[in-house]
Automatic annotation (TrEMBL):
Location of the Flavin reductase like domain: 25-170
Family: Belongs to the non-flavoprotein flavin reductase family.
InterPro entries, per the entry: Flavin_Rdtase-like_dom, NADH-dep_flavin_reductase, Split_barrel_FMN-bd
Protein's name in the database: Flavin reductase (DIM6/NTAB) family NADH-FMN oxidoreductase RutF
Pfam families found in the cross-reference section: Flavin_Reduct
Coiled-coil parts of chain: none
Keywords of this entry: Oxidoreductase
Keyword rRNA-binding attributed: no
Lineage: Bacteria, Pseudomonadati, Pseudomonadota, Betaproteobacteria, Burkholderiales
Length: 173
């Protein structure tokens, strides 16, 4: 590639449009989960995420991220345990509720129990991962949470919720 072509490519990459970037990211289908924990006073806290991913099998680690201006950031930074509840197609309305800051009692939207570690576990999820709050890292405008999985379960007959191009969709064959 010529020096001029390289410079033009670099200049084009430097003109960054955040909205176009977000739009491009939306072309990558993701699963949807509700991450839950409790405040030190015992109040349940949960929010919808699509930033969940596996990180390591040995040790068993997962990761997810939370925007730094979230009112729940300090709660998740300080908790000992959290749960990742991978939702099914039947739980899309609950995911929308947990994503809405105007909904006061989000846990009224779902059936749930407390796990051994005291974190809320949502019923009928595709998969649930109870995690020790292992490490955190700053990453731009988000904080990356790494959890060490201490317990997990899966229900294979449920179809997972999928988010693609700004909306919920279903898996194809």
């Amino acid at each position: 590639m010529s020096t001029q072509a390289t410079t033009e490519t670099e200049n084009a990459l430097n003109l960054f449009d955040s909205r176009a970037f977000r739009h491009a990211l939306g072309h990558f289908p993701t699963g949807v989960a509700i991450v839950t924990t409790r405040t030190p006073e015992g109040r349940p806290v949960g929010l919808t995420i699509n930033s969940f991913s596996s990180l390591s099998l040995e040790p068993p680690l997962i990761m997810w991220s939370l925007v730094n201006h979230s009112p729940s950031l300090a709660i998740f930074e300080q908790c000992n345990y959290f749960a990742i509840n991978v939702i099914s197609q039947q739980q899309v309305e609950a995911a929308l509720g947990f994503a809405n800051s105007q909904v006061e009692d989000k846990f009224a939207l779902v059936s749930h129990v407390d796990g051994e570690e005291g974190v809320p576990l949502l019923d009928d999820c595709v998969a649930t991962f109870v995690c020790e709050n292992y490490k955190q890292h700053e990453g731009g405008d988000h904080t990356l949470f790494i959890g060490r999985v201490v317990r997990h379960s899966a229900i294979t007959e449920h179809e997972p919720a999928v988010f693609h191009r700004g909306k919920f969709t279903r898996l194809g064959d």
